[in-house]
Amino acid sequence: LIHLVGIAPTDGDPLDSYHTVRRELAAYGHGLDERPQLVVLNKSDLQREPAPFGVRDERIVGVHRVSCATGAG
User: Fold this and answer.
1) Is 9 exposed, middle or buried (0-12, 13-18, 19+ CB in 10 A)?
2) DSSP class per residue in 18-65
């Protein structure tokens, strides 16, 4: 699964967004919350300093920062 999380200041807390999606996947069932996950942090061009993504979970296979606006990442 790929989680696309906006990290612009106007997007709110990225960790809250991530945990909301995780709760929704668990509620949906079918083992979706147990699958390997890639976290993509979008809008990285709008941050001066990249904040760490503070979730440690064996299901997360990678965390990538991208900017769809600039093509970075």
Assistant:
1) exposed
2) HHHHHHHHHHH-TTGGGS-EEEEEE-GGG-SSPPP-----TTEEEEEE
Tokens of 70: 């600039």
* pLDDT (tens digit per residue) in 43-60: 888 877 776 778 888 999
Rounded-to-integer distance, Cα 65 and Cα 19, Å: 18
Whole-angstrom Cα distance, residue 28 to residue 21?
10
Q: Is the pTM of this model over 0.85?
A: no
Show the tokens assigned to 17. Answer: 């967004």
**Per-residue b/e over 17-31, b at no fewer than 16 CB within 10 Å?**
bbeebbeebeeeeee
